[in-house]
């Protein structure tokens, strides 16, 4: 499936909407070298493998493949990884972690792709400085990815470039809003161009925008629209960065993050994710409408539209109002996620990945 600048996914609970962007998150984990940890944290391979009907003669594996266009370098990266279960009598690896079986990484700068790395089992073949495929001197452990091993080696610039691209992806699965939420706590005053996925550096992100970039016009406008004219206050950081809100009804009072409602603090987290000093190449938001008052959805859609000018946006939502607002502002059409033959699918999508027009559905 080709992705657009804004990708909006709607559908019923349990059809696999989150699994779609989680697949991209697992690609990022493979490149980082944390694929085994990510899958183990989800309950291990038994929880992650396909649970529907399957042919007994086919390999029982997770297969992830992504194609990424880096417009700045005019190169297309393609990466594939396959992971399966540990063989019954194998001594290497632990029972619940993935066993990486195959990997392949290629680049395309002209008309034909060029394979830069290929892995079968523990053995790795990589294209060297002379342009020939050669055996890498170190074998990969069963649970580690070759692409992470090679990017750490620092001798393969194409793999390093792909890692830098995927490292910038941000997946905001949902912000905590309880009393001890990272969004409600001060953080160390360290220049922060992008929001961490748990939101723990939100105060530093706001401080970077206010005191390093010295431009919060768009942020102030979004907050005022969402909170009936409220104003964001970001004091000059000392050892720690902090922020607060002032509301028109209480002009002399700065409300601290711990005093804000769940919806207010969540909206501020989304604002930091979408309007930070430096925008990630990919921003994924899972049900961003959670806890938000309906009046906050138009300003949220406005921030999404603004962020889409520099970032690729991925949104999973149940909110019809947010869907309509994003569609109206961006001109895109939401993709409906359905369950088909026990599998997650996109309504109207063919095997080629092309999605039919409304008139064809």
From TrEMBL:
Domain of life: Bacteria
InterPro entries (alphabetical): ATPase_AAA_core, P-loop_NTPase, RecF-like
CDD domains xref list: ABC_ATPase (cd00267)
Pfam families, per database record: AAA_21 (PF13304)
Domain ATPase AAA-type core: 6-88, 252-318
Protein name per Swiss-Prot or TrEMBL: ATPase
Naturally occurring in which organism (per UniProt): Pseudorhizobium tarimense
